[in-house]
Amino acid sequence: MIFIAGSHPKITRYRCTRLKHCFRCNNDSYWVLEKQQQFLSLFFLSVLPLKTTYLCSCPVCGNTEFLDREAFEQKVKEEAILF
Q1: What is the dihedral of CA 24, 28, 12, 56, to 10 degrees?
Q2: Which pTM was predicted?
């Protein structure tokens, strides 16, 4: 019997509705919130989530801050829209 297994990412992006200052590029912009999930797939179907990462990044220079789950969910609830 042959099994086709692998992993693939699922990325959900949100745009913040408040301006945030980036100290790396010195710009004020609407930052992007990302939820990156890595899934184990079997026969090209997502079976099991392996890892989840929460990020907040500057769209101008790519400066990235890692967030925990609670902080990410709070930001999405208060100041983000799906795009």
Answers
A1: 40
A2: 0.83
